[in-house]
Each structure stands twice: as structure tokens, then as C-alpha cells.
Write a structure and sequence with these properties.
Helices cover 26% and strands 35% of the residues. By secondary structure, the protein is α+β, with helices and mostly antiparallel strands. It has one domain: Transcriptional Co-activator pc4, Chain A (Roll), CATH 2.30.31. Strands 1-2-3-4-5-6-7-8 form an eight-stranded antiparallel beta sheet. Strand 3 and strand 4 form a beta hairpin. It is globular, with a radius of gyration of 15 Å.
Length: 152
């Protein structure tokens, strides 16, 4: 497996922003990018370097599958400073952590909100919640990035 290319960022190649929520209801944007060589999908959770991970094509495909099927999975990713990590994805079970208006959308649509979570050393962790309306956009942008990846 090739080394993840954190120094090869080229936002002119591909860049998208998606909106989710941190538990408690605050809006939080994340970025989806491709590496300069097009071989890695870079996911900047909460648009921060600290929570940026690189996904191979197979990891991106597994993430898309879990999100589309409302499934749970642990997706292998690479962090620039901490090496191999697992990005957890699964249905979000605590509607009270979403803004009030989004709670109603989840109830009426019958579709679950999905959660992405990443744990790093020294008790650094991040959870992001994507209710159905935001989840559709996340899936769409991830799929667009995946289709543009250079596959060996």
C-alpha cells in the first residue's frame, strides 16, 4: 500500500464542503478533497488538519456502502501524524444531539441520521452527525470524489 499523500494537496483538482452537526446541534463543515495524484480521498472532518484522514479507493467504497445502507463499519484510514486509524460509521441513535428541526426530519422521513467518529491519541476525538438531508449531500460528494480517484 502506498503512503498517504498529505503533502500532495491540490484543491484545484477536487474540493467539496459538506455540512453536518457536532453533538449538541452546532453546524460543522467538513471538506472532501483528492490528493494531487488522484489516488487518495482526503476527508477533513470539521475542516481541521487535526482530524484529516486519507482513504484509499477500497476504504472510500466501504464508507459509501455503510452510509448508503445505514450500516455500521470501521473504515481503515491513514492519519498524517498517527498512522493507521479506524473511522467509525453507523446510525446515530441519539436524536436529542441534533437541532430540533432536524429531529423532526429524521422522524418524518424514517431515515436514520448517520455518524462519523474518529478517535486519536491523547483523548482527542470527534463525532459528526449527518441527518438525512445532509447525509444525501455527503454521499453524493463522496461518490463524486470516489469516481474521480485514480485506481491502480
Amino acid at each position: 500500500m502506498a503512503t498517504a499523500p498529505f503533502g500532495q494537496r491540490d484543491v484545484t483538482y477536487f474540493y467539496r464542503r459538506v455540512e453536518g452537526f457536532v453533538p449538541g446541534g452546532s453546524t460543522c463543515h467538513s471538506q472532501i478533497e483528492l490528493s494531487g495524484d488522484g489516488r487518495w480521498l482526503l476527508l477533513r472532518l470539521a475542516s481541521t488538519v487535526r482530524f484529516t484522514v486519507a482513504l484509499s479507493g477500497s476504504s472510500a467504497r466501504a464508507l459509501l456502502h455503510a452510509l448508503r445502507t445505514s450500516g455500521s463499519a470501521q473504515i481503515p484510514v491513514t492519519h498524517e501524524d498517527h498512522g493507521p486509524r479506524l473511522l467509525r460509521v453507523g446510525p446515530h441513535a441519539t436524536p436529542e444531539e441534533l437541532p430540533v428541526i432536524e429531529r423532526g426530519v429524521c422522524r418524518t422521513s424514517g431515515a436514520p441520521a448517520m455518524e462519523l467518529a474518529l478517535d486519536l491519541p491523547q483523548r482527542q476525538s470527534l463525532r459528526l452527525i449527518f441527518p438525512p438531508s445532509r447525509l444525501r449531500r455527503l454521499i453524493c460528494e463522496l461518490a463524486t470524489a470516489y469516481l474521480q480517484l485514480v485506481h491502480d
